[in-house]
Amino acid sequence: MTNKIDSKIIDEAIFAALAEAKDGQITADDILHRLKHDDEATRERIERELDSDDSLFKDFENNSYILQRAFFNSKVFNLTPDELEIENNLLFPGHRFSAFCDSEIFPSEVKLIDESTKQAQDIFKFSCDVTETIPFHILMGSEQIFDFFVAEDSSNSALLNRVAPVRKVTLNVFNMKDFYRRHEFRSGDALQVTIKDWDKGVFSFKYLSGAERKNKNIESWVNDFADALEKVIDRFDNYLEIPDQLRWAFFFGGKSLFGNQGASLDEFYRKTDRIEINFENAGHTVLGRTLTPSESESVALPDEVMVSKGKVSSIDEILADIGSPLKATEIDAYILDQCYRGELEFDRFFSRCFNHEKLTFSDDAQEAIFVNYIEDRWELISEKYSRLQDEPKAEFRERILEIIDTRVSWLEYLQDMELNIKDLPEKEIKQMAESSLYLTELLELINSEENTLQPDEAENILDAIANVAEIQEEMIENINLYLKQ
């Protein structure tokens, strides 16, 4: 019988092997050799330890492991400030560095060194509307954004309960005034960033002119990174947080994803049509394939699923496939609003949510699955509805639904005009999508029976909703003007 080895001894052997390993790469055989054991039970214990170590990547093809710091250190990636940042001489740390340093490094603790001056960029406080900051933080994951805002500045403490943000948020940003002025920096230019120290979050950067960046290279990078992210999604499903998904995507994609010819993560998120942010339970978000179902809504599918030619894996997938712009969370909100109004006829609710003539079902089976789901959801929510418990939240939900109604009507107008979203101005469409995502997250919290609203939160919530309505109205107006040209 083989003697069982103490876990501490195994940990020490792993630590020593990694410290001595070339390029930070080891295998289970390296550890077994150190321990002078070669039995299957010990091998399995070692692999479990290595698999659970968040500081390691696993090469599944070669069954080897590599330290994340060894993989990322000295690698180069691009970062693209947008017009808001350039106009205000700043750079939001946000999600920009999260994939490229240890997860324990707080975004505003990153050290950013100008390669020309050898000086680290100063940090200063900057306040703006919360919706303006979302594009720079969205790849943190929704469960991290509001906590991050609160930790950044005590004036953001109204976010602590995560019900809704205050209208103005104060954040720590990098002072880029001298750098932008020196290089006459403008939209389309980039920072070429080198990872100097993964563990400490130290980066250096230099100017990269937009004239040196070729669209074909950017488009190719976006496609390659989507390939890598799909491998991550297939391997880990919804287990990883978004920053970890991004780290693994760089690992799976390899050296071709680094260098100054690629896109930034911001550009990837704006340009890709293959990857989207999906909602999970309790507002948790992950990156998934576009139209890939979010497991936040479990759907009991009837037998017809086997004979439908359409997409039927989840309600969100069906909604997208049949041409409805709504999400499952928004449908739940409409059900709750109908219950609050005392309008308990299913047909009236269904007519309010769906213009049936505009829904394009693949076949009768897909339509049956869809209607069955909606009916089941209606029965589940309406049967246990409590008006007394819901009343404090009803006004906020109603105002959000008014914004959604406006968006849906406008999208149906585009559909009638036979216009494709991809042919519309990218900036405005992305900003509308971000506003929609923000409202969906807020509805997740309002819909939940576990969340209650305090009286002193009402003004902040209403201000936030009004701000999103203004942004949506402005974006629709800009796009309508574009269509008239």
Helical percentage: 40-55%
Q: Outline, from the CA principal axes?
A: globular
Sheet-strand content, in percent, reads: 5-15%
Overall radius of gyration? 25 Å
Strand order of the largest sheet: 4-9-10-6
Instruction: Compute the number of strand runs.
Output: 12
The biggest sheet, with number of strands, parallel, antiparallel or mixed sense and barrel status, is: 4 strands, mixed
What is the helix tally? 18
Mean pLDDT: 84
Give the topology, please:
Elements: H1 7-20, E1 25-27, H2 28-35, H3 40-51, E2 56-59, E3 64-67, H4 68-72, E4 76-79, H5 83-87, E5 90-91, E6 111-114, E7 123-129, H6 130-137, H7 142-152, E8 168-175, H8 177-182, E9 190-197, E10 202-208, H9 215-236, H10 242-253, H11 265-271, E11 275-279, E12 285-289, H12 315-322, H13 328-341, H14 346-353, H15 364-383, H16 387-416, H17 426-447, H18 458-484
Parallel strand pairs: 6-10
Antiparallel strand pairs: 1-3, 2-3, 4-9, 5-8, 7-8, 9-10, 11-12
Helix pairs in contact: 1-2, 2-3, 9-10, 13-15, 13-16, 13-17, 16-17, 16-18, 17-18
Structure notes:
The chain is an alpha+beta fold and 485 residues long. It folds into three domains: 7-70, Orthogonal Bundle (Arc Repressor Mutant, subunit A); 76-257, no CATH class; 296-484, no CATH class. It contains 18 helices and twelve strands. It has helices spanning 7-20, 28-35, 40-51, 68-72, 83-87, 130-137, 142-152, 177-182, 215-236, 242-253, 265-271, 315-322, 328-341, 346-353, 364-383, 387-416, 426-447, 458-484, and strands at residues 25-27, 56-59, 64-67, 76-79, 90-91, 111-114, 123-129, 168-175, 190-197, 202-208, 275-279, 285-289. It is globular, with a radius of gyration of 25 Å.
